[in-house]
Amino acid sequence: MKKQILDLTVRSAEHIHERYVLLKLTAADPLPAMVPGQFVEVRVDHSPTTFLRRPISINFVDRANNELWLLVAAVGDGTRSLAALRSGDSLNCVLPLGRGFTMPSSPSERLLLVGGGVGVAPLLYMGAEMQAQGCEPTFLLGARSASDLLMLSEFRKYGRVFVTTEDGTSGERGFVTQHSLLVQESFDRIATCGPKPMMMAVGRYARKSGIDCEVSLENMMACGVGACLCCVEKTVEGHLCVCKEGPVFNIDKLLWQL
What is the model's pTM? Predict the structure, then answer.
């Protein structure tokens, strides 16, 4: 898939949480083709301590409005600078990058999409693309508390949504792998993104249950094209660059101790 460097215009910057901002970006020309699980590398122009681009998952692509959505967690100087963008500002992006999730092979395939924290971001676009193919995704989303759950109304547009919170303020109390859904229903495949301990727990459940599972890794990705070797991951095929060979990998390819 051809990569492009584009100056995108911020159409809106919605502060959906004290730590998260949803950037909706547009361009004069139609946005390039993108698949769920891919990411963009954004240049941070107004942070004197930020020298490298920041990788941000593709949250959603709104073709009708020619918009690309990026869900940004403001956790450092670079991402705080991105969170300070306003309507009309410009954001330089390299896109689309990486390999995405495997989409359903038929409408009858049952996929469970499991996300935690800002890791829910790529699952929204995947759910929308699944619905467009005639599939109904099932989302299982986890957070520390009800106030940390992100974009639930958007997820509900595309499939069933189940929730866990660590403090029990929304959905079932506990972690995603403790949700009763995993006992009550069966799935053909799982796609997950979020904190590594969560993804490892999901991978452990999937392997024990004999379910195919893909995870989206969040290694440090400075260049996005496999040149800087910052994001190398040990796999059964040797050391691979997550930005180029991933960020999505089947758990059977990783050397995780599950």
Answer: 0.97
